[in-house]
Design a protein that fits this description.
The complex is a heterodimer. Chain A folds into 2 domains: about 70 residues, no CATH class; about 230 residues, MetI-like (MetI-like fold), CATH 1.10.3720. In chain A, about 35% of the residues are buried. By secondary structure, chain A is an all-alpha fold. By secondary structure, chain B is α/β, with parallel strands linked by helices. Among the domains of chain B are: about 50 residues, no CATH class; about 70 residues, no CATH class. The two termini of chain B are about 30 Å apart. The chains are: A mainly alpha, B alpha/beta. Chains A and B meet through α10 and α11 of A and α2, α3 and α4 of B.
Chain lengths: ~325, ~325
């Protein structure tokens, strides 16, 4: 079991390498003098062409691509992301102020959407072909097909402007330091961000549950005299979760990608709105590093989902093929 | 032989709704199970054997329902429970399921929940019905596994279903069914999904369990050979009706119904002569959604008479418990 986690973790490394190579190539293709991306623009402005050339030599910009890549990578690992073209500030500093906000938003949204999606899907499955099931299906269809920014605007109009329950946007008011003080800023964006995930999970949970409920071992569980709750939860839901985990892994990138839109709609100062402003300001180094970090976090999140999937499915945990043997 | 009756099925009818059609799976099934005996229910596939078994436990899928008849179960105190009147998942039925009547299913490969250890799946049944500690449950499960031929039950307790072969899984299923020492065990084609060498092993094990625990057993099968080896009484079922019922000698020595005779001839027998060709029953079982006016076997029978196509045969008692559903043996019939 431990070995499984180690292998899974080790498999992250080549994936991250590939992403970093893509990002590096992307940075190389950015127009303009690469020197500007390794030194502060103020210093750059005071240098003569001769000095610049010396600096280029010194910074290794005349070295081969491979050497430059490795140097860039080691910088990346030490947290040296280079400089923004627009503000001239260190990218690491910009990211540090934005990343926790997005992490908070995406995490809250993920938890929230997962719980609701599983719950609605479960209810739909055990109340199959009833009015509850039909209502869920219709709502789910709307949730999948309507774009999230539309829900965002609608929610701001209703809950923030008419009802005045939640703020229209932002991340925290003055002095709102603790997580709970910030929670009211999170409710709307987290919910809107999660809508399509809720709908997707609901649909898959319903299908997966119905599939499991038709299995022979469910009948066996009933033949033991177990109550319907036990049959549905212990034997039904637990097994239904296994394929849902895969769906969840595949949806995490879309959730993170969704932050770009939601953060813009709610004026939320996270990675997503940073990406939007950087793209419109042509601040390519920030865009590339931002992409790298968001992709890495998606990979990491998938890893944790894999770990969780192994906890619920012993067949994954022991890495055995089904049937035969008594491998432990 | 002990003649006390433990389960009585009277004129059971079970129907399925498939889209707009109604499929009559069980039309009129009546039989009795005597305490401590093994009853075989034999028939071709699709004749309503499994549905009969599922109807007794009320484990039918949602589109199936019992539309007539009675299933009476007499518990240890002699109290009669009319099982078909209990609600599908009611408390009354749940205290009987698993504890007093338990079931072994056709496909052992699909019958175990893949995410729990086999030990926990066996003890789940025990702990549902008996108020005992985890430790006691563990001991009971381990000794049951040992009785079923697992050499290292303490270790096997913690294994998952994917660590077991088909035959072992079926033994685990027997353990689940037998752990509460039920009064009735219903085995729904317990060996069909297993290969031949394992079939004998499982059957021997089941007979042994039935004898040592005195469990009354209903064995559902399509294999006359299995019936001959294990059962005390036999019910031959065709299109949801019991066409012949009797004890082992009656059915095998003096089969009456043409269908029973045909079934007996279709059992392969190994002989040095090799002259005898295996017989088969011509035609296929009719569609259950059509209502047949006369005898359902008429189209495939060698002795079909005028009356067979127009009127449903009535039951004739041949000799004591031996009864048959065929116009040939009707007291007013010509060909008797």
């Amino acid at each position: 079991m431990f070995k499984y986690y180690i292998t899974r973790f080790a498999m992250l490394i080549p994936k991250l390498m590939v992403i970093s190579i893509i990002v590096f190539i992307g940075i190389q293709m950015i127009p303009g003098d690469p020197v500007t991306r390794t030194i502060s623009p103020e210093v750059y402005a005071h240098l003569s062409p001769v000095q610049l050339n010396e600096l280029r030599q010194e910074l290794g910009l005349n070295d081969s691509m491979v050497v430059q890549y490795l140097r860039w990578l080691s910088g990346l690992l030490r947290g040296d992301f280079g400089y923004s073209l627009v503000t001239g500030g260190k990218i690491s500093g910009i990211i540090a102020s934005r990343l926790p906000a997005t992490f908070e938003l995406a995490f809250v949204s993920l938890i929230f959407a997962t719980i609701l999606g599983l719950l609605f899907g479960f209810i739909s499955a055990i109340k199959k072909n009833t009015i509850i099931d039909y209502t869920n299906t219709v709502l789910g269809m709307i949730g999948i097909s309507v774009p999230p920014f539309f829900f965002g605007l609608l929610a701001i109009l209703l809950f923030s402007i008419y009802l005045r329950w939640f703020p229209t946007g932002g991340r925290m008011g003055y002095g709102h330091v603790t997580f709970f003080a910030r929670l009211k800023y999170l409710v709307l964006p987290a919910f809107i961000l999660g809508i399509s995930l809720i709908a997707t999970l609901m649909k898959f949970t319903r299908g997966s549950m119905l599939d499991v409920l038709s299995k022979e071992y469910i009948k066996v569980a009933r033949s033991k005299g177990l109550s319907e709750i036990k049959v549905n939860l212990k034997h039904g839901f637990r097994n239904a979760l296994i394929p849902i985990m895969v769906v969840l892994v595949m949806r995490i990138p879309m959730l993170v990608g969704g932050t770009v839109i939601i953060e813009t709609v709610f004026n939320y100062p996270g990675m997503g709105s940073l990406m939007v402003s950087s793209i419109s300001g042509s601040d390519m180094p920030v865009v590339m590093i931002g992409t790298f970090i968001m992709t890495s976090s998606v990979l990491l999140a998938s890893f944790f989902v894999d770990v969780f999937a192994a906890i619920i499915d012993p067949r994954i945990r022991f890495g055995t093929d089904a049937g035969g043997g008594n491998g432990k | 032989m002990n003649e006390e009756i433990i389960l009585k099925v009277e004129n059971l009818q079970t129907k399925f709704r498939v889209g707009k059609r109604i499929v009559h799976a069980v039309n009129d099934v009546s039989f009795e199970l005597k305490k401590g005996t093994m009853l075989g229910i034999v028939g071709e596939s699709g004749c309503g054997k499994s549905v009969t078994a599922h109807s007794i436990m009320k484990l039918l899928p949602k589109n199936g329902s019992i539309t007539g008849g009675k299933v009476k179960y007499y518990d240890n105190n002699g109290k009669a429970h009319i099982l078909n009147e209990y609600d599908r998942n009611s408390k009354e039925l749940r205290t009987i399921r698993g504890k007093e009547i338990s079931m072994i299913f056709q496909d052992p490969l699909a019958s175990l929940d893949p995410v729990y250890t086999i030990g926990s799946q066996i003890s789940e049944n025990l702990r549902e019905h008996e108020n005992i500690s985890k430790k006691e449950a563990f001991d009971r499960v381990v000794s049951m596994l040992f009785e079923l031929g697992f050499s290292n039950p303490e270790e096997r307790y913690y294994d998952y279903p994917h660590n077991f072969s088909g035959g072992m899984k079926q033994r685990v299923m027997i353990a689940i069914a037998m752990i509460c020492n039920p009064n009735i065990l219903i085995a729904d084609e317990p060996t069909t999904a297993l290969d031949v060498t394992i079939q004998a092993q499982i059957l021997t094990l089941m007979s042994k369990m039935q004898k040592t625990h005195g469990t009354s057993t209903i064995l559902i099968t399509h294999n006359m050979g299995i019936v001959a080896e294990t059962c005390d009484e036999v019910a031959v079922i065709y299109m949801g009706r019991i066409v012949e019922f009797g004890n082992l000698e009656q059915i095998f020595n003096t089969p009456m119904h043409p269908y029973t005779k045909a079934l007996l001839k279709s059992v392969p027998v190994l002989s040095s002569g090799g002259e005898k060709r295996l017989e088969y029953i011509p035609g296929a079982t009719p569609d259950g959604s059509e209502v047949i006016k006369g005898c359902a076997f008429a189209d495939r029978c060698k002795h079909t008479m005028e009356i067979c196509r127009t009127k449903q045969p009535v039951e004739s008692i041949v000799d004591g418990s031996h009864r048959v559903l065929c116009w040939l043996y009707d007291k007013g019939g010509k060909n008797a």
